[in-house]
Design goal:
Shape: elongated
Distance between the termini: 46 Å
Largest sheet: 8 strands, antiparallel
Helix content: under 10%
Structural class: mainly beta
Number of strands: 44
Length: 594
């Protein structure tokens, strides 16, 4: 594990401008620098320390601007005149993108105390928090806590966490970790969580932050577009934006807004149009010239909106699933709108089924996600990481959400409503469905070949193409095939194509075997023979047929291996048990190379 020596950071600190140097010696935390937040729950005491002043149980905080992130060092003294617990602890926020909402910020922070009585480093993304450097358990065990914490970070994202108790002369290394999940800082902060009796037991002092601002090369994200009634739209972005030269335009004859009002923090823009938006119309808002304040261009430049209709059974389908995540990316599922309506996918819940048949808690797909007819949305823990890993084309719809980890071998995915009383689609997947050429299933998605196929069938699903990095989140599947075709003659069985190349490159990897019966009631046996007349694959065994449908062959043999290049024979036998009718046909099928 790479280490960063304290001496190296001392040298760097001397050459980096101090972004915060706060000792509260002026008796005022509202200026030089200005700390903002729940200010009524803090005072500067007679010892010129920042002290808690909560009258009841709370989580209270103050933040001040700080962009220190690269070659950075953070230091703070903390005292808690009470044994720490899960209800009584303090936190030193090193780097945060927000100062107004503890449950919505992306941040790194040091927790002082807590259930383990330790000094630990956490990463926070919204309300999701993860301990990335577990401190020494019971290090702060006692009736009173007093500790100075120190954290260093280099430009490669290596953190080192130190602590020092009053009777210690040297810093104690709690641990180190490399983490690049968060790329920059806007604020540094102090927080305490207290029970009702401990509202004045927390003190902070000697907050010193040095370092350099991170170089922002991350494109901003368009978080949401919300209709607020009439002709008003509210746009929300992942970071402060530069709206100075940005333009916004709505199609269907609406045009440009007559007012544009940005929020004070630059994260939102309210657009007012001259007339209300009509029901039953799908609009598209296009933007140009919109960047973050570092000049990074917004990748998503248009988004649909309108009055969405309720989702009914049959409107949406599971279309793709990545259940064994690749290195450097994340699991995801993809949903397709197969209705002719504008749907609000945020009303859907993604969950899994337990072995006893009940459903897990699950999560809503996204906070805001409209789906046009025939459109797709992929949902995942980290949308941008998935987009970059699979090199998705512009316009691919990928949204972040709280995630339920999927089993790598088999599992049951359920698409339901918030009450879990309506099942819109359900898939019991299995890793054995992957193409036989797939030697390592890690990082390979299963794609639905066609929305016309039933969900619960191995024949409906195929490994994503190698040429799309084994996944197509947010856009049309690499293995998609149109299924409504007609024979060129009077055949009641026909194949498409007659020659296919099952090499998982996304081009004609599957042979579609169509049939059309003159009346219902037929059953079928479907067999593949090699050139020597040896049976190599059985596709159907006394299957009851519809009047029209199809089967697929992906070149897999009965023993699970891939078919060799050559000519094979499809034998399709149909019989009507009630009428005693039997008919059969043989068709050549060529397994070719590309």
């Amino acid at each position: 594990m790479r280490k960063i020596t304290p001496f190296a950071f001392l040298f760097l600190a001397l050459h980096a401008a101090a972004q915060v140097d706060e000792h509260f010696s002026d008796g005022d935390f509202t200026r030089n620098p200005a700390w903002t937040g729940t200010a009524d729950r803090f005072i500067v005491n007679n010892a010129l320390q920042l002290q808690s002043a909560a009258e009841e149980a709370s989580r209270s905080y103050l933040f001040t601007p700080s962009e220190a992130f690269d070659q950075a060092e953070w230091q703070c003294w903390v005292s808690i005149d009470y044994p720490t617990s899960q209800y009584n602890y303090a936190a030193f926020y090193l780097a945060s993108d927000r100062s107004d909402d503890l449950d919505a910020c992306n941040a790194y922070y040091v927790r002082i105390g807590g259930a383990n009585d330790a000094v630990s480093l956490f990463r926070q993304k919204g309300d999701e928090k993860e301990e990335i450097i577990p401190g020494t358990t019971k290090r702060l065990d006692g009736d009173r806590v007093e500790v100075t914490v120190r954290v260093t970070r280099n430009t490669e994202g290596w953190f080192e966490l130190y602590s020092r108790l009053p009777d210690e002369t040297d810093w104690i290394l709690e641990g180190s970790v490399q983490d690049r999940s968060i790329s920059q800082s806007t604020y540094v902060g102090l927080m305490y969580a207290n029970s009702g009796a401990t509202g004045r037991r927390y003190r902070f002092d000697d907050v010193v932050v040095t370092g350099l601002p991170a170089t922002d090369t991350t494109a901003p994200q368009w978080v949401s577009l919300v209709m607020e009634g009439g002709g008003t739209l509210r746009l929300t972005f992942s970071e402060p934006m530069d709206f100075s030269v940005a333009t916004f335009e709505v199609d269907n004859g609406v045009g440009y807004p007559h007012t544009q009002t940005p929020s004070s923090d630059g994260r939102e823009m309210v657009l007012e149009f001259a007339y209300p938006f009509d029901e039953g119309v799908i609009y598209t808002l296009k933007t140009a010239g919109l960047t973050d304040r570092a000049g990074n261009v917004l990748a998503e430049t248009e988004r649909i909106f309108g009055h969405a209709e309720p989702i009914e059974p049959g409107d949406v389908l599971l279309n793709e699933v990545m259940f064994n995540q690749p290195e450097g990316s994340y699991e995801y599922i993809e949903v397709m709108n197969v209705s002719g309506k504008l749907l609000d996918a945020s009303s859907l819940v993604f969950t899994t089924r337990k072995t006893d048949g009940t459903l897990n808690t699950g999560h809503r797909l996204a906070t805001e996600c409209l789906l046009a007819p025939d459109a797709y949305v992929a949902v995942t823990e980290d949308a941008e990481a998935v987009r970059q890993y699979h090199q998705c084309p512009p316009g691919s719809l990928i949204r972040p959400m709280k995630w339920t980890t999927l089993n790598n071998e088999a599992g049951i995915i359920v698409l339901t409503d918030s009450t879990k009383t309506i099942i819109f689609d359900e898939l019991a997947y299995d890793a054995s469905w992957h193409h036989p050429l797939i030697r390592n299933e890690k990082g390979v998605a299963l794609e639905r070949i066609s929305p016309d196929f039933i969900t619960q069938s191995a024949d409906t699903w195929h490994s994503a193409s190698s040429e799309t990095h084994y996944g197509t989140p947010g856009y049309r599947n690499s293995q998609y095939r149109a299924t409504f075709t007609a024979p060129t003659d009077d055949s009641w069985v026909w194949t498409e194509p007659e020659a296919f190349s099952p090499d998982n490159d996304g081009f004609e990897d599957v042979c579609l075997i169509h049939y059309r019966m003159d009346e219902p009631g037929y059953a079928a046996n479907i067999t593949i023979f090699d050139a020597a007349g040896v049976e190599v694959c059985r596709l159907a065994d006394n299957d009851l047929l519809a009047t029209e449908g199809l089967y697929t062959w992906d070149g897999r043999l009965t023993n699970g291996t891939a078919a060799n290049i050559g000519i094979y024979v499809l034998y399709f036998e149909a019989f009507h048990p009630q009428k005693g009718i039997r008919k059969a046909v043989k068709k050549p099928v060529v397994v070719s190379g590309r």
